[in-house]
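wait is this the right file?? whatever heres the structure
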């Protein structure tokens, strides 16, 4: 059902004070609340809700505000909802008139709301953060013509994949599903499976790899026996095929893959996870999805984020990144700066300059090309301060939503920092002006 819109109430309650009267109007969050066009979200997000069926949804401004705060400060769903009760500035930012003492929503509502708005809604949240940056003068519209594009890895919330653990976990899932459906198996290996898993780990730690491989082979055998036993039991009953189809497909892929196989299965609860080689000493591989990041060359402002399934070649993703930037900002990039991984991009509408290029480089372009590496600390801040370092959202859709919201959170952090700096400079100007006038008065008194 459509969420109820909170009407602006100008009435004064006798025993309660309005938040706008007790908060510091110079605070960056108080000022940021006035820079975001909340009516834009009310108009655009109305189409994501059905008619007059069910309970009314939570206010749109509350959900959008919580999403901004969550990714600006790198918090979980539970942490941002609990922090909202304690922080009056957060409550004012999310549209409250008076201080509230109860949780605004259940934390699980954040998950359902993200699924409701989908990728399109998260793009709107990123687009409005860009407009708020223009209103706060944290970024200039002319900066949208010169962009920097790079890719990184958004790791998924999975454990480091090993064959031992995958075989044992797949067997446990099949046994649990068979018990739930009332299928009696010949043997479940409830005791033998964990015992072989412990031995494989102990032998690997002791560098006795031949014995460890023997235990791994045992785990694979246990899984194969349970798998074939279930196939025989569900064959006469077509109703059980749907219940076991997804799990059996994952098990079949796990049993068939080898060391040289492509598109391996690295996690049973997140089969979309890919192994992406980093080529760095401290981290050779990362397990997640590739993400394209587009920033302004001058202000390091995020104007594009895309999750790229399938680990595509960087050069083949450049055109899509520039198209997204044009869609979000309304400005066509004139110059784009990339690293050498984008050679062979095929982009013709925008001039693309690759790191290390020598031809056609003017002093201005040379200066901007040096700033290409500034995208690296931007990615680092999104991983350390935001939620790009570990994605907890489910499925390929969760990869896309988390990437877009991380970009919006980075923009909010830049805007808040600019508002703080501007207030500090204003106070410094007043202090110097007052001290200068006092010195003038003392000088005049001394002369007299």
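ok assuming it is, sequence goes like this
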């Amino acid at each position: 059902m459509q969420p109820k819109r909170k009407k602006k109430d100008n009435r004064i309650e006798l025993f309660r004070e309005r938040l706008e009267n007790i908060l510091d109007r110079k605070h960056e969050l108080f000022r940021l609340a006035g820079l975001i066009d909340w009516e834009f979200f009310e108009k655009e997000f109305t189409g994501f809700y059905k008619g007059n069926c069910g309970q009314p949804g939570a206010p749109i401004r509350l959900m959008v505000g919580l999403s901004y705060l969550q990714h600006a400060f790198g918090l979980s769903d539970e942490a941002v909802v609990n922090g909202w009760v304690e922080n009056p500035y957060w409550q004012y930012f999310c549209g409250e008139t008076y201080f509230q003492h109860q949780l605004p929503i259940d934390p699980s509502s954040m998950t359902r709301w993200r699924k409701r708005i989908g990728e399109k809604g998260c793009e709107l949240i990123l687009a409005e953060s860009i407009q708020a940056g223009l209103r706060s003068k944290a970024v200039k519209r002319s900066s949208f013509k010169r962009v920097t594009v790079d890719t990184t890895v958004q790791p998924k919330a999975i454990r480091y994949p090993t064959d031992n653990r995958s075989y044992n976990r797949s067997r446990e899932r099949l046994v649990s599903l068979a018990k739930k459906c009332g299928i009696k198996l010949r043997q479940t290996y409830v005791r033998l499976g964990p015992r072989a898993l412990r031995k494989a780990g102990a032998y690997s730690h002791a560098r006795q790899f031949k014995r460890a491989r023997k235990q791994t082979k045992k785990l694979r055998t246990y899984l194969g026996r349970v798998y074939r036993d279930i196939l025989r039991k569900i064959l006469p009953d077509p109703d059980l095929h749907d219940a076991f189809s997804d799990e059996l497909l994952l098990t079949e892929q796990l049993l068939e893959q080898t060391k040289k196989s492509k598109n391996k299965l690295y996690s049973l609860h997140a089969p979309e996870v890919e192994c992406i080689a980093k080529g760095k000493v401290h981290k050779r591989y990362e397990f997640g999805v590739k993400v394209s990041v587009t920033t302004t060359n001058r202000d390091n402002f995020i104007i594009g984020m895309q999750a790229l399934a399938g680990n595509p070649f960087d050069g083949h993703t450049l055109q899509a990144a520039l198209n997204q930037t044009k869609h979000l900002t309304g400005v066509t990039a004139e110059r784009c700066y990339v690293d050498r991984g984008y050679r062979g991009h095929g982009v013709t509408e925008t001039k693309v300059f690759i790191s290390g290029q020598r031809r056609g480089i003017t002093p201005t372009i040379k200066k901007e090309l040096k700033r290409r590496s500034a995208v690296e600390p931007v990615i680092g801040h999104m991983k350390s301060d935001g939620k790009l370092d570990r994605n907890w959202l489910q499925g390929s859709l969760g990869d896309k939503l988390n990437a877009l919201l991380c970009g919006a959170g980075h923009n909010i952090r830049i805007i808040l920092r600019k508002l703080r700096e501007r207030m500090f400079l204003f106070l410094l100007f007043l202090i110097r002006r007052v001290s200068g006038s006092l010195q003038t008065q003392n000088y005049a008194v001394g002369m007299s």
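The chain has three domains: 19-139+411-424, 145-158+273-403, 163-256. so i think its the right one actually
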